[in-house]
Amino acid sequence: MLLPPLRQRRYFHPQLQKTLYRETHFSMSVALRTQLFLFLISLSSRMGLSRYIEDNEAADGLYSLLSLDQKRESEDFIFRRPLRCLDMLATDGYFTFVASQPQLACATFIIAEPSEVISLELSDVSIDCSAGDFIKMFDGWVLKGEKFPSRQDHQLPLHQRYTDYCSSTAGTTSRSSQNVAMIFFRIHSPDSGFTLAVKKLHNPFPCNIMSQSPEGSFTMVMPYERRNCSFSIIYPVEVRLTELSLGQAKSNELSPHRQVWSGCSGSGDYVELLGGNGVDTSKMYPVADLCFSLSGLAQMRIGCDNSVVRLVSSGNYINRVSFQYRLLEQRELPKARENSLDNFCAVE
């Protein structure tokens, strides 16, 4: 089932609104992380994850996210704070969860910069696995049952992307393959819990990125490796391709997907633009694709909750794509048509 459009599903808890009002002097990057955090709260409420979350926990978690830039000013500062049942982390540090009541459906989303991967380590764990407690770390994100990166875009099989504390001797550490990771946990007994250490590491060749911002620019490079890389923007945006260098150059124009898909998919090296209302790229709508080198501007508006630039590489060449993206204003969103996918996701 497709999600409703992002512009219709934003949810602001009254306490979150007050916190946002108090913190409007913070930097743009923090404001954008806040918007992403609110999106995850809204989406997770639809997943049933927020049933056990107290209202004040959401507000406190948001305040910690907003204030982390101030705490970063000291290089020697080690960031520590409590972990909530539903939480989002965007900085290095130590995060401790202690259950005050049974917490049966908890998740923490971790996001880093596009050029970073995430190292996770559990310590001081006091849970009862035999009673149904668990802590699982995942290489990527899971939202509405969909996984990012998708099976087609991740190098590991799905079962190897999970690290289960209760069933693995190496279940205390995990390292992501991209700039997002998450943990799931269930704890029945009060005063049980754990500490999660988060550390971000440099990634020289970023692949499968979740953007923190609805606007910016990026370059994906894939050197002689058979791999698919996606840059995911969970907003309706306009994408401008500024440079494209592929192993096989054929022509010099951007064409709608319906006209050139068969040729590009057979080339082995191409870029495609996708739109959809979930995070699994294999379930998204192909908007356009390019299988030729490009040195000028080519642009397209994607009025979806999730807009993706995806680079497919055969491994025979050094492929490179550079692009810019910006959030579409309300007046720029394509009008929906009845009885079609465009009711939820329109492209133009």
List keywords for this structure.
6-stranded mixed β-sheet; disordered N terminus; alpha+beta; about 350 residues
Textual characterization of the structure:
This protein is an alpha+beta fold and 348 residues long. It is built from five helices and 23 strands.
| Helix content, binned percent | 10-25%
Placed side by side, the strands forming the largest sheet appear as 13-15-21-18-19-17
Head-to-tail CA distance between termini: 23 Å
Proportion of residues in extended strands: 35-45%
Estimated structural class: alpha+beta
Chain-averaged pLDDT: 77
Q: What does the largest sheet look like?
A: 6 strands, mixed
| Low-pLDDT segments | 1-28, 45-64, 249-261, 338-344
List the helices and strands and how they pair.
Blueprint: H1 6-9, H2 14-22, H3 28-47, H4 55-71, E1 80-82, E2 86-89, E3 93-98, E4 103-111, E5 116-126, E6 134-138, E7 141-143, E8 146-148, E9 162-164, E10 173-175, E11 180-187, E12 193-202, E13 209-210, E14 216-223, E15 226-233, E16 237-245, E17 255-256, H5 257-267, E18 270-276, E19 285-290, E20 298-303, E21 306-314, E22 318-327, E23 346-347
Helix pairs in contact: 2-4, 3-4
In short:
With 348 residues, the chain is α+β, with helices and mostly antiparallel strands. The protein has helices at 6-9, 14-22, 28-47, 55-71, 257-267, and strands spanning 80-82, 86-89, 93-98, 103-111, 116-126, 134-138, 141-143, 146-148, 162-164, 173-175, 180-187, 193-202, 209-210, 216-223, 226-233, 237-245, 255-256, 270-276, 285-290, 298-303, 306-314, 318-327, 346-347. It contains 5 helices and 23 strands.
